[in-house]
Structures are given as structure tokens and as C-alpha cells.
Design goal:
Layout (H helix, E strand, L loop, with lengths): L2 H6 L7 E6 L14 H5 L2 H15 L3 E7 L16 E5 L3 H9 L1 E6 L8 H8 L4 E4 L14 E4 L6 H10 L6 H8 L2 H15 L10 E6 L20 E3 L12 E7 L4
Parallel strand pairs: 1-2, 1-4, 2-3, 4-5, 5-6
Antiparallel strand pairs: 7-9, 8-9
Helix pairs in contact: 5-7
């Protein structure tokens, strides 16, 4: 995205204090929002955090993915009525628009390891308020990107206050640009594959990056070993490397195509 152009166009003007993303709740609502999705996204702790923010801070927010196709919704705290917008499962781009309009992303989950929404939010320059017991994704929190809070909520208020006081000081997008992206991830992936799968994959000598792409179906039986490639490479083996069908695909990029 052209972030500066989006800012100039007003796409990042803030409407909500916080955003929280649940799962697709079509089945969750039927079981009182106590299913796997609610467990993974830690919906019970999210409600506790929302209650504090709505009742004590008078915050507004948007919660994605807690309304089913019949209009039934997971129950939000009474203090958040008329302050929090509840939204059905939306497509990717609609979700990003809600994120653009929010001041920070609430991440109370523990077992939803390294949630993709964390990096999506940071890429849109939205800081994070994250449970410090999350099993993956903790690496994203630093002085540029947001704050932790304890899983028992003992320091939630102080962490929230610190986050709010520093909203204009965080620079999560700059952190993502400096540390992540195709060039950096592609270089690390190439080194990893070369170190661990050299008996199965032969990479072009002048290539510097490996960039995963969508798996495609093989039209012929796999060879015992992949020869050098300049395009997509199949990874043959009954043990999956990048997908559940054992048909991992990599695109190799080289600075010198010749």
C-alpha cells in the first residue's frame, strides 16, 4: 500500500479507540461463543478488557466476526452497548479498513499463536496491546510497536494507560518495514531450506531469495530430487514441507536472471 497517500486521503482517520478480531462465528454463536474460535481468540478475556475500556475509559471500539448470518451475536459487556460496533465476518479488505480506523489492536489471545492480524495492524501503523502469555507473536512487541499486559489482568489498566499516552510515539509500520517483508523473509527462507533440505532441493546458485507461492497440483510423479529451477519447484516427499498435500511450492528469485 501507499501508506502516505492513504493518510493524505483520510483513510486512516480514527473512528474507534480499539479493534478486536474474533473468528468466523457462524457456529460459535450456536454454542454460546464457547467453541474453538472463542477459545483461541480468548473471548472471555477480551470481554473483561472491553468492560474496563468501555466502563472506565469510555472507549469506543469495533469487534469483528461475532455476528452470524442471522444477526445473532456473541454477548458483549453491558458497558459497551452503544460504544462498540459488532460486525459479522467480513472480507479481508473490509477488515483492513476497520483496522485503519482504529487506534490500537487488542490481542488477548494465548493459543492463537502469532496471529496474522498483529502484523497486518502494524503494517497499517496500528500499535498492539498484547497478552504477554501468547505462545507466539510476543516477538512483535517492543517500544516501537505496543505494550504487553499480564494474562491475569493485574496490570491491564497501567498497560492501557501507557499505550494511550504513547499513541503518537509508536511507529509499528516503520518497524515492519525495517525487519520484515519479502526481501528479508525470502533471504532467511532460502538459507533455512539450503541448510535443512539440501538433500531434497537443489537451488539456483545465483538465487538469493525463496518466496512461497500457492501450491499447485503435480501432473507427473515426483523425482527423487529436484534439479535446479528458475521457476516454481515441487518438493517431493510424503512428508509435507509447506502444505498438507505434500506439494510445497517455492519461487526462486535471483538478482541475475541469466
Amino acid at each position: 500500500i501507499d501508506y502516505d497517500a492513504e493518510v493524505a486521503q483520510g483513510k486512516h482517520d480514527k473512528i474507534y479507540d480499539f479493534i478486536y478480531v474474533m473468528t468466523n462465528t457462524e457456529a460459535e454463536v450456536e454454542v454460546g461463543c464457547t467453541g474453538w474460535g472463542a477459545y483461541a481468540k480468548n473471548w472471555p478475556l477480551a470481554k473483561k478488557a472491553m468492560d474496563i475500556m468501555c466502563l472506565e475509559m469510555n472507549f469506543t471500539g469495533v469487534v469483528l466476526g461475532i455476528v452470524d448470518s442471522n444477526g445473532n451475536s456473541c454477548e458483549i459487556p453491558p458497558s459497551c452497548q452503544d460504544k462498540v460496533v459488532t460486525v459479522p465476518y467480513v472480507n479481508y479488505f473490509e477488515g483492513l479498513n476497520f483496522m485503519r480506523q482504529s487506534k490500537f489492536l487488542l490481542l488477548p489471545q494465548v493459543y492463537d499463536a502469532s496471529p496474522r492480524v498483529a502484523v497486518e495492524a502494524m503494517s497499517l501503523n496500528v500499535p498492539l496491546l498484547m497478552n504477554n502469555q501468547i505462545v507466539g507473536g510476543w516477538k512483535y512487541i517492543n517500544e516501537q510497536t505496543g505494550e504487553f499486559f499480564n494474562d491475569n489482568m493485574s496490570d491491564f489498566r497501567s498497560s492501557l494507560a501507557k499505550l494511550v499516552s504513547r499513541l503518537d510515539s509508536y511507529s509499528p509500520r516503520s518497524y515492519v518495514e525495517l525487519n520484515y517483508g519479502t526481501q528479508k523473509a525470502g533471504s532467511k527462507l532460502r538459507a533455512f531450506v539450503e541448510e535443512n533440505f539440501s538433500d531434497r532441493v537443489s537451488l539456483p546458485k545465483k538465487s538469493h531469495l525463496l518466496i512461497p507461492s500457492e501450491p499447485i497440483k503435480m501432473t507427473s510423479p515426483p523425482n527423487d530430487k529436484i534439479s535446479s529451477v528458475t521457476g516454481p519447484a515441487h518438493i517431493p516427499d510424503e512428508r509435507p514441507l509447506f502444505d498438507n498435500d505434500g506439494q510445497g511450492v517455492l519461487e526462486s528469485e535471483s538478482e541475475d536472471p541469466h
